[in-house]
Amino acid sequence: MCVRRVWSPPDPCDLARNLGVLQRGPGDPAFQIGADGAFWRASRTPAGPGTLRIAREGTEIEGRAWGPGAEWLLAGLPALLGADDDPSAFVPRHRLIHAVHRRHPGLRLIRTGLVLESLIPSILEQKVTGIEAYRAWRLLLQRHGEPAPGPAEGMRMRVMPDPRGWAMIPSWEWHRAGVDAKRSSTILRAVRVARRLEEATSMDLAAASARLRLIPGIGPWTAAETLQRSNGMPDAVTVGDLHLPGIVGYALAGVRGADDEAMLELLAPYAGQRYRAARLILLSGRVPSRRAPRMAVRDFRGM
């Protein structure tokens, strides 16, 4: 059975830009964009698996949902689209950021309310290329997830396993997906305390980050990448990233090779809004030319 909700955003809402941070690669089984431009998500909610279709209907946004988690997904539709975000708290301090901020009035920081859904793919992205991480996420969901409810089943969308399902994945299946023992062990430790981790959605940034980082293998980078999506934290700036410090340093100061310390110093005027500032910098397209070779794609299956 399909349930429906229509929501009228009070301000501009850029669906593609805002929801795009949830897609883990072009073949993500849990996120698709239909031929009609609608956005489809398959999620494991506290009420069970659900499928959500989001489409713009004039000035309104329509959500349709299927499965045991349908009502939960529709209840969270405004937050998912940035209704809890307060962009008025952001004051541009650089000419570049001011220009980008003006060009993207519909940018909002989304809130899924689901920690594990963002945490697991973020762990898969630790210290590997995006290609490797997206492939692992795709294969694990295809082999160990379940068909998404409703019409998404015909689209071959998948809902990720529940915590017990992740825990039951045998070692050779992680290996087959190209996931090394360090990352798979971190995921297994996380799913054992999934309920405690999900409590982080009601915490402030410091407490939520601390809760996630109690798990060995989850550091500042993974915690920030997760909380940006699950909690919509405007100050959850990503540290420990291979490229972001260099991009911020080049965009704001014209310097190359900036490290985390330099990046945080440059973002200090945006305290409380550093993640939003970083998003806008990335949208500017002002990035240094690549001088170092790209990280090599490794194949853990032969190791």
Automatic annotation (TrEMBL):
One GO BP annotation of this record: base-excision repair, AP site formation
Domain of life: Bacteria
GO cellular component: cytoplasm; protein-DNA complex
Molecular function, one GO term: DNA-7-methylguanine glycosylase activity
Keywords: DNA damage, DNA repair
Protein name, UniProt field: 3-methyladenine DNA glycosylase
